[in-house]
Amino acid sequence: MHRHISILGSGWLGSRLAALFVKQGEHVNISTRSAHKIRQLTARNTTVYQLDIESLSFNIQDFLNAQTLIINITCKNVSAFKNLLKEIKISPIQNIIFVSSTSVYPVGSGLCLESEALDCTTHTLLQIEKIFFDNKDLQTTILRFAGLIGPKRHPGRFFKSGKKVRDPQARVNLIHLDDCLNIINRVVDKNVWGEVFNCCADSHPSKQDYYTKSALALGSNPPEFLKPEISGDKVVCNDKLKAVLDYQFIYPDLDQIPW
Predict the structure, then answer these.
(1) How confident is the model at residue 39 (pLDDT cuts 50, 70, 90)?
(2) Are 56 and 87 in contact (CB under 8 A)?
(3) Contact 200/148 with Cβ under 8 angstroms?
(4) Residue 66 and residue 92 in contact, taking contact as beta carbons nearer than 8 Å
(5) Which residue, 156, 160, 163, is CA-closest to 226?
(6) Is the pTM of this model over 0.85?
């Protein structure tokens, strides 16, 4: 039986996620804030809605006519998400994937685990996670993605020429687009709800090593690195994701990605 999925946000990740679900035969609703993107998205066999959660329109319930909602937008307006939740609660939506970020873990956290107690007052994104995760009328899984790399996001272009990069020995936390898509698909396919997952590649080379290598691979000058600072390290652990979802990364080693 084909599923009906709504994707809030049609950016770099959302548009590709919609294409994946359409290819699998799913019925996909997708939202955009831009009128000029409607024709492009419609051509991909999705049902497109022009929506902005900071100003919800009359068609929000049509968009929410699905079993699963994937929230993948950059908005940090807590009140807007609270209003969205009110609409979700009177819709057919049963399950939610909220795409969050490993930025919720402070620099210097050391090894970052999902079980770590985090102070919601320090990060707006944590407050938004809590809005959905704590609501018992819905089943929500939080996906905390590390830095996103992939098509049009080559790490060799992250720093413009002349840019000075801090903490050269701090380790990077990144994930490739293909793994992002597969992880979301796995959560939906296996009905894994009520969980929080760190989504990050296995390897964590230093900033200096990785971004120097990435820039040179493009024939570009590497960024300039400031002298080492004592700000502490941060390494995002993906053990829970691999165990619960029985997931094997496509690109576990960042240095082995075929650009």
Answers:
(1) confident
(2) yes
(3) no
(4) yes
(5) 163
(6) yes
